[in-house]
Predict the structure.
Amino acid sequence: MRVFTGSITKCSKEFGSAMKVLTKASGRSNAPVSADINQKRRISPKRLHYKRDNCYYKLMLPDDKLKELELLANKTRELIIEMLLEAGSGHSAGPLGMADIFTAFYFHILNHRPKEPDWNERDRLVLSNGHICPVRYASMALSGYFPVSELKTLRKINSRLQGHPHRTSLPGLETTSGPLGEGISQAIGMALAARLNGEKHRIYCLTSDGEHEEGNTWEAVMFAGKNKLNNLTVIVDRNNIQIDGFTENVMPLEPLKEKYEAFNWHVLECDGNNIREFVDKINEAKAIFEKPTVIIAHTIPGEGVDFMEKDFTWHGKPPNTEEAKKALNELRTLGGKIRSEHQ
Ligand SMILES: Cc1ncc(C[n+]2csc(CCOP(=O)(O)OP(=O)(O)O)c2C)c(N)n1
Ligand SMILES: [Mg+2]
């Protein structure tokens, strides 16, 4: 496979050199790890790099792969609109806003096997804010966990695709979620267990900004910081909205970065609707060895559908037929840039 040709950075097996490449590529003057810890440990560059012909290459996103992911994210958004229309209920804003991040996970970041969902070495992706599950279902279907046609059963009686994810119904889900504020607690349990068992998989937890109004979230954040759970990466969907308003009006969360830092976390921020930027931050998180990492991903709720963007009233309602038609037209024409095959 020649996917990485032309866009990969060759580097030595030595971790020190690898970090220089990483730092140079991210345009930063300081390596994102503390030198003393890395000097003491010989870190296998395997998880940061891609091995071919006995050489290690930094995992970057070549342009053609990025384009592929962006188109998949757009397809994911179309499926979300179609599912919600069919279901007649559900959440629009959060799933659309997180389509880029889910696409990046399922098609580039995760070490997983869609046809073997219980494979023990898989990375764990915990979805804490369960109400945005239409985006997870769409990514799972597109990546081969189940047929895309099953998406039409969202929220139907006896469907495996419940309105909030039900772990034992659908292989590939790591947890049941819906009650907010539980995901980081579940993820720290997985991270601690993996460390105690000497297992190498990583644990990712997707959580929302609204969930940071839950006390349980902060207990988990405190525990992870204390235990230096460096195999855990939390991603906060910082879309500034919650069920009936803007977070900063309902319960201000800022300064969120400083709060995490005070709990001994490594904090990164990015544009959560920019796949390349997000993937870069994930790679950077893998290079942090003394702390858990949180990526505060700034996303636009309703991203891709003009009349839904940044409007909290789309938190928990589906489009009607007319609205879905308008939304699908916008997505299928990439905002009027191309002709849709459906026209
Ligand atoms: C413990 C708990 N309390 C309340 C709710 C009801 N609820 C569902 S979504 C939501 C808003 C949470 O904010 P956020 O996740 O940021 O929403 P989004 O960004 O998706 O609009 C609330 C209060 C819940 N699911 N669980
Ligand atoms: Mg929110």
Q: What stands out?
A: The longest helix spans residues 63-87.
